[in-house]
């Protein structure tokens, strides 16, 4: 079954050479960025941009509520002595966003708001002639169905406008897709199977909390699992396939088969891979809470009437759960996220494992945010920097795995997300 809509023609390969700067922009504007959204991921990305002034010009942070931008700006000032501008914008309003872009005149808009805003922000970029980057693909509010086709449909418009959009520059999607590119370029001549393993071994001390936006997180986890096998999408009930895996520096954890957005783009851009799966770890306590919330209808996105008003249960649930950006002070432990690939190297079968381990407390000490925000915000900063520098260039809409992985992998090591490679004895036994 292919639930991903009709396949479209592959985009032409992006250029990897240096782009000529627009002569109408001053040297500074060539590196100026406008970041939208002021949650945990944005906070990390903005801290890292301010920490690396040689990579970025003026940073402007805008979100629905300006006081959240101002709090991030204060933290950036206190930690790195750098000043960032702040503004208020409703990113669902294309005209208002375009007016802000005209005022700020950045080279690049970095979308770290929610997936619901992706298309409106891409429209605003097209209106104003600005490049675009995000970390999560578009999802309509009223339907828990995230897929790339909506954004891939913008390819010709970005190409015609001479603009670039980079999709999925977080950790997963993002780093996991770049790891696949690294494996293909340096470790295996052919990849046959790819498993992405996402483990958060952190403990925030709360009964139940999600480590990124609760609404997006719960929509993702409660959706049916889907993996790719020999050209087919195989669907199974949510959280019904479990395996046990021992994660370096975290320990043994239960992980569950899930659908995740990079499966769609990896299946498209790496057609040689026969099977691609995504696994995420969940503790029993988390799953028990989730099951109860589901059973009583609190994870539903269907509106219900309450005291004469329409309420969406999942949005109400989000309002009573802790904000992910507040979890940093209490979270201890590590994340371990990576790719296991089996394939062929020099005629022999080989299995390799590329992963990063990130410590929640170290991430918090550096940026004031826990490791899930850190592992997403740092790759957003790196993708933005590679676009501004012209190391990754192209006209149109691109996924991150379409670019040369080398400069991104080098920057991961330099900016707080070091990775390691191990050869395994053989393929995964499940
Ligand atoms: P948060 O909910 O903490 O932050 C989202 C921010 O966007 C909030 O500041 C919110 O404003 C703002 N926002 C929401 N709607 C609008 C709007 N209409 N106009 C302007 N601003 C708006 O989320 P996270 O920081 O945890 O996640 C950010 C993004 O990163 C999400 O898209 C998420 O899916 C993605 N992500 C990607 C990962 C990856 O590895 N690729 C991993 C984790 C997250 P307000 O503060 O007022 O609510």
List the helices and strands and how they pair.
Blueprint: E1 33-36, H1 40-51, E2 59-63, H2 66-80, E3 85-88, H3 94-104, E4 108-111, H4 118-128, E5 131-134, H5 149-152, H6 155-161, E6 164-167, H7 175-187, E7 190-200, H8 214-221, E8 225-229, E9 232-236, E10 242-247, E11 251-258, H9 261-269, E12 275-281, H10 284-295, E13 304-306, E14 309-311, H11 313-320, E15 334-345, E16 348-359, H12 360-367, H13 371-389, E17 396-399, H14 405-414, E18 419-424
Parallel strand pairs: 1-2, 1-4, 2-3, 4-5, 5-6, 6-17, 7-12
Antiparallel strand pairs: 7-15, 8-9, 8-12, 10-11, 11-12, 13-14, 15-16, 16-18
Bound molecules: NADPH dihydro-nicotinamide-adenine-dinucleotide phosphate.
Quick overview:
The chain has 430 residues and is α/β, with parallel strands linked by helices. The protein has 14 helices and 18 strands. Strands 7, 8, 9, 10, 11, 12, 15, 16 and 18 form a nine-stranded mixed beta sheet that branches. Strands 3-2-1-4-5-6-17 form a seven-stranded parallel beta sheet, with helices on both faces. It has a two-stranded antiparallel ribbon with strand order 13-14.
């Amino acid at each position: 079954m292919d639930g991903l809509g009709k396949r479209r023609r592959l985009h032409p390969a992006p250029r990897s050479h240096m782009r000529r700067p627009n002569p109408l922009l001053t040297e500074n504007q060539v590196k100026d960025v406008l970041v939208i959204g002021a949650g945990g991921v944005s906070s990390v990305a903005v801290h890292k941009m301010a920490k690396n002034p040689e990579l970025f010009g003026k940073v402007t942070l805008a979100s629905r509520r300006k006081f959240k931008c101002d709090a991030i700006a204060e933290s950036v000032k206190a930690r790195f002595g750098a000043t960032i501008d702040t503004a208020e914008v409703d990113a669902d309003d294309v005209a208002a966003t375009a007016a802000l872009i005209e005022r700020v005149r950045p080279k690049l808009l970095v979308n770290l708001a929610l997936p619901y805003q992706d298309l409106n922000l891409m429209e605003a970029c097209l209106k104003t002639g600005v490049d675009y980057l995000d970390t999560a693909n578009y999802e309509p509010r009223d339907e828990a169905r995230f897929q790339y086709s909506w954004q891939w449909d913008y390819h010709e418009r970005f190409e015609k406008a001479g603009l670039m959009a980079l999709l999925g520059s977080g950790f997963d999607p993002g780093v996991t897709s770049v790891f696949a590119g690294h494996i293909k370029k340096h470790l295996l001549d052919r990849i046959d199977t790819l498993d992405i393993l996402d483990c958060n071994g952190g403990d925030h001390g709360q009964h139940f909390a999600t480590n990124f936006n609760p609404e997006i997180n719960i929509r993702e986890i409660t959706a049916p699992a889907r993996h790719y096998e020999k050209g087919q999408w195989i669907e199974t009930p949510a959280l019904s396939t479990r395996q046990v895996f021992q994660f370096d520096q975290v320990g043994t954890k239960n992980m569950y088969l899930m659908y995740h957005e990079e499966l769609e783009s990896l299946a498209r851009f790496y057609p040689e891979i026969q099977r691609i799966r995504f696994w995420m770890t969940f503790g029993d306590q988390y799953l028990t809470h989730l099951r109860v919330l589901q059973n009583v209808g609190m994870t539903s996105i269907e509106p219900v009437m309450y005291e004469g008003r329409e309420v969406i249960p999942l949005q109400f649930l989000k309002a009573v759960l802790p904000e992910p950006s507040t979890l940093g002070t209490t979270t201890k432990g590590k994340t371990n996220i990576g790719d296991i690939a089996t394939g062929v190297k020099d005629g022999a079968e080989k299995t390799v494992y590329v992963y990063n381990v990130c410590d929640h407390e170290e991430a918090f000490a550096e940026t004031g945010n826990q490791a899930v925000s850190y592992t997403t915000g740092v790759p957003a900063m790196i993708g933005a920097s590679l676009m501004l520098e012209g190391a990754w260039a192209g006209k149109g809409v691109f996924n991150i795995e379409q670019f040369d992985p080398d400069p991104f992998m080098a920057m991961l090591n330099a900016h707080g997300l070091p990775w390691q490679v191990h050869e395994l004895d053989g393929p995964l036994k499940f």
